[in-house]
């Protein structure tokens, strides 16, 4: 599991915890884990990813990689965004995720 598969709330808690630890240790550097909320919520390929999974009827990171010609990290991030917005369901083992809506304008 990588940082992009964790919920934003969990990432923010980790970030806060790391800041506290660095303060106690007297470190001045920035933390290694930085959550960029603006970037994670604004992906230019989101509309295409949404349309693709609705047309295909399922969602996987590899599907997005193949059709949108992107890397695994970005595809995983898009899958997470689609789940957060209720377009696709939760992960069930290694099975593709179910699409929960039929109309791309929803």
Beta-strand percentage? Answer: under 5%
Order of helices and strands: HHHEHHE
Provide the CATH top-level class of the largest domain: Mainly Alpha
What share of the residues lie within helices? 40-55%
Features:
2 domains; Arc Repressor Mutant, subunit A; 2 strands; two-stranded antiparallel sheet; single chain; 106 residues; 4% strand; mainly alpha
Lay out the secondary structure:
Elements: H1 8-25, H2 37-41, H3 46-56, E1 58-59, H4 61-68, H5 72-84, E2 97-98
Antiparallel strand pairs: 1-2
Explain what the structure shows.
- It contains five helices and two strands.
- A two-stranded antiparallel ribbon has the order 1-2.
- With 106 residues, it is mainly alpha-helical.
- The chain has two domains: 1-35; 43-106, Winged helix-like DNA-binding domain superfamily/Winged helix DNA-binding domain (Arc Repressor Mutant, subunit A, Orthogonal Bundle), CATH 1.10.10.10.
- The two termini are 30 Å apart.
């Amino acid at each position: 599991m990588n940082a992009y598969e964790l919920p934003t709330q969990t990432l923010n808690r980790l970030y806060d915890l790391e800041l506290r630890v660095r303060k106690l240790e007297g470190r001045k550097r920035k933390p290694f884990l930085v959550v960029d909320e603006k970037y994670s919520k604004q992906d230019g390929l989101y509309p295409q990813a949404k349309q693709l999974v609705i047309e295909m009827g399922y969602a996987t990171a590899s599907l997005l990689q193949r059709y949108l010609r992107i890397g695994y990290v970005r595809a995983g991030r898009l899958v997470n965004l689609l789940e957060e917005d209720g377009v696709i369901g939760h992960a069930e083992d290694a099975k593709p995720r179910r699409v929960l809506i039929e109309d791309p304008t929803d």
